[in-house]
Design brief:
This protein is mainly β. The protein folds into two domains: about 90 residues, Rossmann fold; about 110 residues, Hexapeptide repeat proteins (UDP N-Acetylglucosamine Acyltransferase, domain 1), CATH 2.160.10.10. It has an eight-stranded mixed β-sheet, with no helix packed on it.
């Protein structure tokens, strides 16, 4: 049976990780075909061993089954690109889970998720579609990470933590058990979140405090 062509959207740092380590995800049904990136200056060039074949418009209307991995870490940009592709039912979004991570039994993983090496995810956790969990992050039991969110390296979530949609959590940030972080929020690196945070804020520090709020 022919393998399904797979495209990486975004030839930045996350794209490099996927391209260089594609065999570690054990996706035997897929074949890497190249990068897609909307920066026209990259078109026709080779990045991390694969060509940049054009922009997102090149694959929006493909008629054959095609796999896409969106390696854009910024949650808002990631959501924007994926929303353009979702109407095409020929496009599938496989999850890439490193064989060097640990995922407990009774964990739900959605579509288009990227899990780096060294990540551990404990039981009864839900990781919704298009989440990126960077290396050496530790996700406690009974956590919920909603769509499009991105966790930088070394993030630690206490049990029963709830992360909203399009949340961006910085390097080595952590949460206490039962904390809820609202949609579209940014948590700075090394922050310690000990109480609930609302939608659309930026929080930093130990303990984390809100330094900025924005309109949706």
């Amino acid at each position: 049976m022919d393998k399904i062509k797979l495209f990486i959207i975004g030839c930045g740092n996350v794209g490099a990780f996927v391209a260089y380590n594609f065999e570690d995800f054990q996706l035997s049904d897929f074949e890497m075909h190249g990068f897609i990136d909307d920066e026209t200056k990259k078109w026709g060039k080779t990045f991390f061993g694969y060509p940049v074949l054009g922009g997102v418009d090149e694959i929006m209307h493909l008629q054959q089954k095609t796999a896409v991995v969106v390696t854009i870490s910024n949650p808002y940009d990631k959501k924007k690109v994926i929303s353009k592709l979702l109407p095409n039912k020929n496009i599938v979004f496989p999850s890439l889970i490193s064989r060097y991570s640990w995922i407990s039994k009774n964990v739900f993983v959605g579509n288009g998720v990227i899990v780096y090496p060294g990540v551990s995810v404990n039981y009864h956790t839900r990781i919704e579609d298009y989440v990126i969990i960077n290396m050496n992050s530790a996700i406690g039991h009974d956590c919920h990470i909603q769509r499009f969110s991105t966790l930088a390296p070394g993030v630690s979530l206490g049990g029963f933590t709830s992360i909203g949609e399009c949340v961006d959590i910085g390097i080595n940030a952590a949460t206490r058990q039962f904390v809820k972080i609202g949609n579209n929020s940014i948590i700075g690196g090394l922050a310690m979140v000990i109480s609930d945070l609302p939608d659309s804020i930026t929080a930093v520090g130990v303990p984390a405090r809100v330094i900025k709020a924005k309109n949706n």
